[in-house]
Amino acid sequence: MTGRVLIVDDVVTAGTAIRESIDIIKSAGARPAGVLLALDRQERGSETGLSAVQEVREQFGIPVIAVIGLQELMQYMQGLGRSVELAGMQAYRERYGVEN
Fold it and tell me: Residue 17 burial (CB < 10 Å; 0-12/13-18/19+)?
């Protein structure tokens, strides 16, 4: 395989699956072109203070683009008045997240 490959994923947690995908792409002789995510959960990466998405961007020098981020999803849920779901998202962000 040659050329450039776009990685498409639903979400990123620690970025492990993306790193593995990049290794597979490179070992096949191609180059990763970027990553397209459905949702950026804006989770902390590995001890850098950056989010997992920011770490992938910096480590591999490729764009990582999300359709929507957790903060935007939370704003949408707030607009719908979905306070129970929003409270769960806020607790999740406080435990695992970074502010992007």
Answer: middle
- Kind of pairing between the strands at 4-11 and 31-40: parallel
Convert the pLDDT of each residue in 8-24 to its tens digit.
999 887 778 899 999 99
Spatial strand order in the sheet of 64-69? 4-11, 31-40, 64-69
Q: What is the pLDDT of residue 12?
A: 82
Closest of 12, 6, 9 to residue 25, by C-alpha: 6
User: Cα dihedral angle (6, 70, 60, 28), rounded to 10 degrees?
Assistant: -30
